[in-house]
Write a structure and sequence with these properties.
The protein is mainly α. Helix content is 62%, strand content 3%.
């Protein structure tokens, strides 16, 4: 039965829910009410006809709700160790969100990948489309784009008033990128055609009109960015040490020494590069990394020749990983053994994972957004990607916490996400698959190292840029051109991909390094737990205990595992 707002997301816990659990559960209900996009992503009924409010009033309201919740939480006593972790995790999350709000960054929330400029549109990719009722909701959601965009523009205007604006580099990119929405036959125009779906004629007509409203709203945003924001946007890309420290902590859920971490990143980059060179020699004696890649790219046995072949290969490899790992290093319940590998409806080139709904009626899914015109794929590059997004990576991690309703409240199961924990685990999973013998083929191993090298390189780049560090050759500070050259030296990707990635790092400080730093912290926690356990060490138990804790900041995870 459809309900306007969820009243209780999870099912009964085997342990009696504590007061902290109930507070956390009610917070998830509030989040679903305030953010229809969150409700859609999580698969909660209600809000499919609405979009998030990005206005200054909505930002202020949410900030006050977080303050009130934090004050309530401070006075509550945990009843057991599970409660201790829940309280610590939620308090850390709330306090950091409040600290970041005070910096004023919410007034300049625009970047090339993860701001409301993208988010308002992106949620349509996950909006249900199975029934006529779904499309009726979608028609209303299309109409709601105008209000969401208007609220967002209002917030950015507060930034203009307070001289708190995003970098011009980010503004220019987004203006150009919005042509995919505002141009002829843009996203909403194509989406509203509902090709291959049987719908009443009147609804089809309404969808066409609503798509025009949504497209016009984005045209308004595009014009605002070009005509009002661009002339006053800052020329400075770097966010500065104070803000970067907070953002790093948000994405990691941990405080790290940025100077030590930068030095580690430089050393890790050199180490991975040396490992790549050794594997290249396995592929062809005496070969450089570039020469080994050429050998692999010319190997017909490593080629897939259509998106259909790609999808079937992904599914087959994923199914094999679930079957084999479920026998040895992981407990994989039956509900978690379904992972759907799909070709995404968009063409951005991104590969990503979406978690299961609370009742697993929508399973976890691995998506590949294949760029238009690309029909050939190299398996050596992507074997580790399947493990990263699927099992033992994101799917095992996210689906485990959703499944663990016996111990976890709804916030820990469904609403908390920490990039350092999640992406760090996925990189940990890549290395683990090498340790377990799943990457014995040197081509597949080189593919894994290619990704690890990129993640190490962006630790160096991201920290250096935003803290104003000197270039590695000592000739002045990092700028955009130097960053592109640095990534081009260390990433085996197209110039277009590298250009986008560098824009991403410049505009989304602290996020990209969280992958590799998160992996480092995961490995540190594992090694410390192993040393502490001595002869009683059981890696399967470590994995089970760690994943059953749900998504935590890495400082909270460390305390929960090591005491």
């Amino acid at each position: 039965m459809d309900r306007k707002h969820p009243t209780r997301i999870g099912l009964a816990m085997s342990r009696k829910p504590s007061a902290i659990d109930e507070l956390s559960n009610s917070w998830v209900v509030k989040l679903a009410q305030l953010s229809p996009s969150f409700a859609t992503y999580a698969g909660f009924a209600g809000g499919e006809d609405r979009l998030d409010d990005h206005s200054p009033a909505a930002v202020a309201h949410f900030n006050q709700l977080e303050r009130d919740l934090l004050e309530q939480l401070k006075g509550m006593e945990p009843v057991d160790k599970i409660d201790e972790v829940s309280k610590a995790a939620l308090m850390a999350n709330l306090q950091l969100s409040l600290d970041i709000h005070e910096t004023g960054l919410w007034k300049r929330d625009l970047d090339v990948l993860a701001s409301p400029a993208q988010g308002i549109r992106d949620i349509f990719d996950l909006t249900p489309v199975a029934t006529v009722s779904d499309w009726e909701n979608l028609n209303k959601r299309l109409r709601a784009v105008e209000g969401a965009v208007d609220g967002y523009i209002e917030t950015l205007r507060v930034g203009i008033r307070d001289k708190e604006t995003p970098a011009i580099r980010q503004v220019n990119w987004v203006v150009n990128d919005l042509n995919n929405i505002t141009g002829e036959n843009g996203f909403f125009t194509k989406f509203a055609k509902a090709e291959g779906v049987e719908l009443p004629a009147a609804l089809r007509s309404e969808l066409v009109e609503s798509s025009k409203v949504a497209t016009a709203a984005y045209a308004k945003l595009q014009n605002f960015l070009r005509e009002e924001l661009a002339p006053v946007a800052t020329e400075v890309d770097a966010i500065g040490r104070e803000r970067y420290t907070l953002l790093s902590q948000r994405f990691l859920g941990a405080k790290v020494d940025l100077e030590e971490t930068l030095q580690w990143g430089i050393e890790e980059l050199a180490r991975v590069k040396a490992e790549q060179e050794a594997v290249a020699n396995e592929i062809k004696p005496g070969a450089t990394v570039a020469e080994a890649i050429e050998v692999l790219n010319n190997d017909p046995s490593r080629k897939l020749h259509s998106t259909e072949e790609l999808q079937k290969w992904m599914q087959r490899l994923s199914d094999q990983a679930i079957e084999e790992l479920g026998k040895t290093h992981f407990d994989i319940p039956e509900k978690l053994r379904t992972l759907e590998c799909r070709i995404a409806p968009t063409n951005s080139g991104v590969i990503y994972y979406t978690g299961p709904t609370d009742d697993f009626s929508r399973p976890g899914r691995m998506w590949w957004s294949v760029p238009a015109g690309v029909t050939e794929f190299d398996t050596w590059r992507e074997t580790t990607t399947v493990y990263h997004e699927g099992v033992p990576g994101h799917h095992l991690q996210v689906a485990t916490q959703v499944y663990n309703r016996e111990e976890l409240n709804d916030w820990r199961r469904m609403a908390n996400w920490c990039s350092g924990h999640g992406e760090g685990w996925a990189l940990y999973a890549e290395r683990l698959m090498q340790d377990l013998g799943f990457l014995n083929d040197p081509g597949d191993r080189l593919g894994m190292l290619d990704g690890q090298r990129m993640r190490a390189a962006r630790v160096v780049l991201d920290i250096s840029v935003h803290l104003g560090k000197p270039r590695l050759d000592g000739t002045g500070k990092w700028d955009f051109d130097y960053a592109v050259a640095f990534m081009s030296e260390n990433v085996n990707m197209s110039p277009e991909f590298i250009n986008f990635e560098v824009h991403r790092y410049f505009g989304w400080p602290g996020q990209a390094p969280s992958y590799k730093i998160g992996q480092r912290i995961w490995e540190q926690i594992r090694d410390e737990a192993k040393a502490k356990a001595g002869d009683g060490w059981d890696i399967k138990k470590f994995h089970r205990d760690a994943l059953n804790l749900g998504a935590l900041g890495l400082d909270t995870l460390r305390r929960a595992i090591l005491g």
